[in-house]
């Protein structure tokens, strides 16, 4: 067994012990992990070099930008307006509140990149709505949990930005962000469909009824009040769609080499533009003074996530410099496992890691290795890259025993541990099986 495998075991051990046993914040545990890796690898002289490299990474700042955007959308009640519209449209269906949770939580989760934070944000509305329409408490908790974690694999989630960086590192070239995002939407579409089908079956099994008419908001009123907020997904996603389809013709003809710079800058400018739009159309909902207060108070929620990602990047930079990931990849390759076996083993491996490591940290630390191992076994490296957020970010919050999204949803739903965990395992199992199917390339994926 190579020494690099010992490094990984030691890293997981120190993070697990400090986080689970000593109840330290996950970002603090990640810092201890970084310090331990510096000591074990003897990279003392580069301690601050890896920190500096992370602090100049544009993808890291893009993640922070979208985290801030999520707070501004919450402060302006833009998400509330969108959720009300969804409820008015789908609440009349059997299990309509559940479909609202799938759609609204997926959208919000994509913006925040935090599954547990998304449960807290949208779950306080969707979970009570589901319970009122006949959902058992444990099912309501898991619908919200499974939907919220799915946001981590839909652009512009921060885990996706990390996965793109891993693919670029593997290929040695810079892939267009828009091309990668289109592929991510292609993968995510299958998982959205899987959630909807699973929800439909559960609604039939538990005989869930439509929401009471008296509790349904008026479609006309909600559209009249909040239709402008429906343009937010368009503002966020349209630039990337246009860049994907028109870069080779329209933009390149007019901008030349600047077309690639346009693609690279989209992630930095998009959250700012979306925030300005949300503030403009919801000016009556919040005063400037209250906005500054809200953003200031939100720092306590953004900083821990940002710090966790920051130290994960530091560990990743250290591993890249010392070839830890590459050597582990060579060790796994030496097993000569067939591609089919790897498709089953790797999602299981990341699910176990998700009990300790956040999805963004998993992706940054192990992403390039996973891509290279699958490519060496005959798999499609691009599919492997776009599946990283699926098997790390999405699985992280819904896999017991450290299922933060499930616990957050349980608290809102007031459901019991046993029933919630057993139902959660069904959602996790279906997510795992679909991950294997996608990794094997058995389903058509747009953009791949």
Which helices and strands appear, and what pairs or packs with what?
Blueprint: H1 3-21, H2 26-41, H3 47-55, H4 58-75, H5 78-90, H6 96-112, H7 115-132, H8 137-150, H9 158-171, H10 177-205, H11 219-226, H12 231-255, H13 258-281, H14 288-321, H15 324-333, H16 339-353, H17 359-376, H18 381-391, H19 393-396, H20 404-413, H21 417-439
Key phrases:
mainly alpha; single chain
How would you explain this protein's 3D organization?
By secondary structure, the protein is mostly helical. The chain has one domain (3-439). The chain is 78% helix and 0% strand. It has 21 helices and no strands. Helix 10 (177-205) packs antiparallel against helix 12 (231-255) and helix 14 packs parallel to helix 17 (359-376). The mean pLDDT is 82.
Portion in helices: over 70%
Name the beta content range: under 5%
The tally of domains stands at 1
Q: From N to C, what is the helix and strand string?
A: HHHHHHHHHHHHHHHHHHHHH
Number of strands: 0
Structural class: mainly alpha
Tell me the major beta sheet: none
Task: Briefly characterize the structure.
The protein is mainly alpha-helical and 448 residues long. Helix content is 78%, strand content 0%.
């Amino acid at each position: 067994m190579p020494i690099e495998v010992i490094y990984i075991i030691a890293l997981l051990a120190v993070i697990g012990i400090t986080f689970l046993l000593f109840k330290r914040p996950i970002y603090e545990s990640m810092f201890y992990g970084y310090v331990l890796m510096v000591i074990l690898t003897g990279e003392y002289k580069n301690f601050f070099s890896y920190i500096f490299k992370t602090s100049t990474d544009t993808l890291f700042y893009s993640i922070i930008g979208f985290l801030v955007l999520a707070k501004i959308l919450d402060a302006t009640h833009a998400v509330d307006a969108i959720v009300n519209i969804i409820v008015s449209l789908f609440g009349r269906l059997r299990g309509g509140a559940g479909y609202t949770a799938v759609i609204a939580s997926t959208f919000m989760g994509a913006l925040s990149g935090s599954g547990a934070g998304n449960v807290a944000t949208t779950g306080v509305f969707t979970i009570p709505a589901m319970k009122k329409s006949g959902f058992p408490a444990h099912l309501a908790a898991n619908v919200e949990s499974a939907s919220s974690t799915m946001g981590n694999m839909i652009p512009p989630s921060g885990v996706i930005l990390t996965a793109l960086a891993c693919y670029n590192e593997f290929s040695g070239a810079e892939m267009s962000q828009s091309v990668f995002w289109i592929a991510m939407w292609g993968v995510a579409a299958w998982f959205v469909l899987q959630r909807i089908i699973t929800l439909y079956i559960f609604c039939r099994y538990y005989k869930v009824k439509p929401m009471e008419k008296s509790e349904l908001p008026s479609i006309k009123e909600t559209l009249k009040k909040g239709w402008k907020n429906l343009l937010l997904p368009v503002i966020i996603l349209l630039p990337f769609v246009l860049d994907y389809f028109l870069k080779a013709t329209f933009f390149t003809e007019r901008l030349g080499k600047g077309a690639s710079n346009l693609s690279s800058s989209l992630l930095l400018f998009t959250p700012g533009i979306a925030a300005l739009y949300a503030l403009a159309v919801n000016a009556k909902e919040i005063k400037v003074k209250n906005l500054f207060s809200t953003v200031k108070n939100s720092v306590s929620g953004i900083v821990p996530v940002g710090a966790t990602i920051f130290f994960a990047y530091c560990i990743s930079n250290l591993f890249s410099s010392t070839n830890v990931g590459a050597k582990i990849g060579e060790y796994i390759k030496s097993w000569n496992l067939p591609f089919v076996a790897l498709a089953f083993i790797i999602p299981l491996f990341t699910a176990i890691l998700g009990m300790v490591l956040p999805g963004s940290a998993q992706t940054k630390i192990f992403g390039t290795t996973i891509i290279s191992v699958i490519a060496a076994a005959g798999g499609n490296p691009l599919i492997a890259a776009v599946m990283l957020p699926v098997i790390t970010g999405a699985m992280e919050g819904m896999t017991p025993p450290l299922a933060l999204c499930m616990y957050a949803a349980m608290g809102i739903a007031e459901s019991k541990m046993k029933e919630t965990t057993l139902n959660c395992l069904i959602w996790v199992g279906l997510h795992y099986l679909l991950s294997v199917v996608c990794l094997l390339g058995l389903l058509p994926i747009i953009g791949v």
